[in-house]
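> run fold RIPR3 protein
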Amino acid sequence: RSCSFTGFSTMQSRKLAKSLGRSSVRSRMSLKPPKAYNSLQKGAVIWDPKPLQVKKIFEALKKGLNEYLEAHQAELDYLSGRHKDTKRNSRLAFYYDLDKQIRSVERYIRKLEFHISKVEELYEAYCIQCRLRDGAANMKHAFSLSPSTKASRESLVELYKNFQECTEDMCFMEGALEVHLGEFHLKMKGLVGFARLCPGDQYEVFVRLGRQKWRLKGKIETDDSQTWDEEEKIFIPNLHDKFEIKVTELRGLATILVGVVTCDSINFFTTKPQSIIVDITELGTIKLQLEVLW
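> ok
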C-alpha cells in the first residue's frame, strides 16, 4: 500500500492543492461573515462543519420555499382568472384593484424564485467545498502512510493548509446560509396536564435556541384558564442548535423542576402553522403546547 501511495506523485498532489486554493469560496463569492463567525481567523477553526445537518436543513428549507411558491402561484392563477372576467364586465375600479394585487403577487413570486436560486447556489458551492475537504483529508491520510521524504512533507503541509481553508469556507457558508432561513414565530398556547394542573399553580417556561432566550411566567386561574405574561416570541433559526424547553413550577420562593426537553426545528419550515405538543415529564403527565409559524 505504501508503494501505491508513493506512486501518486508530488506533482499530482500539488495540482490538487492548487485546485483547492482556486476553489476557495471567498475568492469567488463576496460573503460577509455573520457575527457568529467574526472571531474566525485564517488557520483557526471554531468548530467542524456539519454537512449532514446542513443537508437536512437545506432540503427542509427548499421544500418550504417551494410550498410558498406553489401557494402564491395558485393565488396568481386565481386572480388572473378574475381579472379576465372583470375586464369583460367593464368594472374599472375593481379591475384596477385586481391588477394591483396581481402585480404584487408577481413581484413576490420573483423574489421567492430568486431566494430559492440563491439558496441552491450557496448549497452547491458548499457541497463542492465539502468534497474538496474530504479529498484533502484522504490525501493527507495517504501521504502519512507513505515513506517520509522532503517532497511528501511539503505536500502534507500544503494539503493541511488547503484542508483548513476548505473548513473555514464551509463555516462561512454555513453562516451565510443561516441568513436565508427566515424567522420562527412562536406562540404560547399553554400547559396541558389534566389532574396535574390546579388553580393557583404558577409555572415558568424557558425556551432557548442557541443564544436566543424566551422566559415567560404563567398562572392557572380558578376557571382552569391560563394567563401568561408574554404570548409570542420571534426566533431566528440556525443550522446547529435545537430548541431547548425547560419548565419549572414556582412555589413561593422555591422552584421545582418539572422537566427539560429538546425539540428539532427541521419540521417547522412549512407554510402552515405547526401545533407542537411536547411531553415535559417522562410520563407525559404535563405537556407544553406551542404554535410555530415560519
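The helical segments are 2-7, 10-22, 25-28, 51-89, 92-145, 150-178.
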